[in-house]
């Protein structure tokens, strides 16, 4: 039987895949506490808009409510906190740690159509829900401006 022809591009793809896994594994174990630093934990978020409100949903499993801070700063909403690694007994040895721990921070732009005094947040089942009502007297749609 003839040997299959060697494909250097296929071999390169295999090497690239192995390198990606190696870097992902190394960075996941790295603890950079600076906001947005390499290896920093970043919870995923959904942003939903309706005719009268804007809602953000952040997945924060394993984070205690008292470890979450929420601030309006200028035209941004800042959500920050920390997921702590809890150890049951002294001397425990982990053979693998794949979940991310440590501090996190997410910034979301707040549109001018939002009533900044209407921010309300709830935390249930590891999901932080932030609701912002829209201002009632904001004109919607495009505005044509005459050039003189």
Descriptive overview:
With 148 residues, this protein is of the alpha+beta class. It has two domains: 7-31; 41-87 and 100-136, Immunoglobulin-like (Sandwich). The protein has one helix and seven strands; from the N terminus they run H-E-E-E-E-E-E-E. The strands form two sheets. The chain has a four-stranded antiparallel beta sheet, with no helix packed on it. The longest helix is centred in the N-terminal third of the chain and has 21 residues, at 8-28. It starts with 7 loop residues before the first helix and ends in a 15-residue tail after the last strand.
Oligomer: single chain
Low-confidence stretches: 31-39
SS-based class: alpha+beta
Tally of structural domains? 2
Instruction: Count the DSSP helices.
Output: 1
Rg of Cα set: 23 Å
CATH third-level topology of the largest domain: Immunoglobulin-like
Distance between the termini: 81 Å
Mean pLDDT: 82
Helix content: 10-25%
CATH architecture of the largest domain: Sandwich
State the main characteristics:
single chain, 148 residues, alpha+beta, Immunoglobulin-like, four-stranded antiparallel beta sheet, three-stranded antiparallel beta sheet, flat
Fold blueprint:
Blueprint: H1 8-28, E1 45-49, E2 53-59, E3 68-73, E4 76-83, E5 102-109, E6 120-124, E7 127-133
Antiparallel strand pairs: 1-2, 2-7, 3-4, 4-5, 6-7
């Amino acid at each position: 039987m003839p040997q299959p022809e060697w494909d250097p591009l296929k071999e390169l793809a295999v090497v690239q895949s192995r390198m990606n896994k190696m870097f992902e594994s190394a960075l996941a174990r790295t603890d950079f506490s600076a906001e947005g630093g390499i290896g920093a934990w970043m919870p995923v978020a959904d942003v939903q808009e309706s005719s009268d409100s804007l809602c953000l949903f952040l997945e924060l499993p394993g984070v205690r409510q008292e470890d979450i801070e929420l601030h309006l700063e200028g035209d941004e909403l800042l959500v920050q906190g920390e997921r702590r690694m809890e150890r049951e007994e002294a001397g425990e040895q982990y053979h693998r740690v794949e979940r991310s721990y440590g501090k996190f921070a997410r910034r979301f732009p707040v549109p001018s159509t939002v009533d900044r005094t209407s921010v309300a947040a709830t935390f249930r089942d590891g999901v932080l829900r932030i609701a912002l009502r829209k201002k009632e007297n904001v004109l919607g749609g495009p505005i044509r401006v005459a050039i003189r």
